[in-house]
Amino acid sequence: MDANQILIKTVLITVFAVLGLVILLPRRGARGMAIRRLTLVLVMVSAVIAVIFPNLTNSVAAVLGVGRGTDLLLYGLIVVFLGFAVTSSAHNRRLDRQITDLARQIALTEATTAHDGRTPTEDGSPA
Amino acid sequence: MDYEANGTTEDGSPAGVAMSEPDRMIAARTWLVIPLFNEGTVVGDVIRHARETFPNVVCVDDGSTDDSAEAARRAGAHVVHHPINLGQGASLQTGLRYALTDPGAEYFVTFDSDGQHRVEDALDMVRRLAAEPLDIVVGSRFLDDRTKPGAIKRLVLKAAVVFQNVTSGVRLTDAHNGLRALSRHAASSIRVTQNRMAHASEIVNEIGRLKLRYAEQPVHIIYTDYSRSKGQSVWNSVNIISDLIFK
């Protein structure tokens, strides 16, 4: 039993370690998006397979050393959820940064027009 | 209001009085950058007091819901409005960007809106920028023992300093002091992307990354009841570290 569980433990720990790396080294651009989409497709395909062959989850669970197929599904759900949380928080951070830049630009534009086109210099400091 | 009465220091001399001519020249080329968020009760006095020494003040109103912005304007500051609340770090960056549009500006001081920084310290720091080959002068509460934070706060600040020195390679005795004086080079090259409180650490990291010439200046932080009630709780150190790691 314990010897069998080493397998599922390795699988889970590896997945969490990879997620941790994703947090620390957020990947931008085409590669990151492609990886996210491939993962999504993979999850969808395995979901469909699991629906068509319900017993398959049980056998996979047995191979990995997890008790039942439902347990395996639960583990899978946790992994997918954490993955989602990680990627969406990275995405939010990026959005925050863009909103900041946008708001700053608005603030600076408004400030200069509010001073009627005056530059800050014309308020008493020498040229 | 009474933040000045509470915050009188040992030497206690008011700033802005009896400035020498060279000081006046330096001050005229200096911009005070003050992030502002709901400090309506004190900010007017803070700015009026600061403007006796430094005529150029830009306040970045970070979406205040009280009359802070109006008070700042009445006190003679330039006010830049963030349309939404972005945080203190973002306000500093906006204020620096605004002040940099003045081609005559050579020195930039980041200053607090709640009266915890002393104008005399700011002037000392700008003097050093003008006299010594430095890009940035950072205030430190721990170079002498005038400032008296509570025991827990002291411990947290010390721990922050150790963390900061290890991660940035910059040797400072006070990691999160908001009083800094920057040269034009430093002000235009430092990028503050941390919107919230982690910007102080980020500025230190930038000093290391950009290899800026830095020095520390002992300053006295005035912990009044007002600033204490608004000040950072020690819980914030957790948020700061997580902001820095998960950027």
Can you walk through the features of this model?
Chain A: Keywords: Membrane, Transmembrane, Transmembrane helix. Chain A: The chain crosses the membrane at residues 6-26, 38-66, 72-90. Chain A: This is DUF2304 domain-containing protein. Chain A: InterPro entries: DUF2304. Chain A: It holds the Pfam family DUF2304. The complex is a heterodimer of chains A (127) and B (247). Chain A is mainly alpha-helical and 127 residues long. Chain A has one domain (2-20, 39-114). Helices cover 82% and strands 0% of the residues of chain A. Chain A contains four helices and no strands. In chain A, helix 3 (54-64) packs across helix 4 (69-114). The model of chain A is unreliable at 121-127 (pLDDT under 50). With 247 residues, chain B is an alpha/beta fold. Chain B has one domain (3-245): Spore Coat Polysaccharide Biosynthesis Protein SpsA, Chain A, CATH 3.90.550. Chain B has eleven helices and seven strands. Chain B has helices spanning 3-6, 21-28, 43-51, 68-74, 88-100, 119-131, 151-168, 184-189, 199-209, 225-230, 236-245; strands at residues 30-36, 56-61, 78-81, 107-110, 136-140, 180-183, 214-218. A seven-stranded mixed β-sheet of chain B has the order 3-2-1-4-6-5-7, sandwiched between helices. In chain B, helix 3 links the parallel strand 1 (30-36) and strand 2 (56-61). Mean pLDDT of chain B is 84; it is low at 1-16.
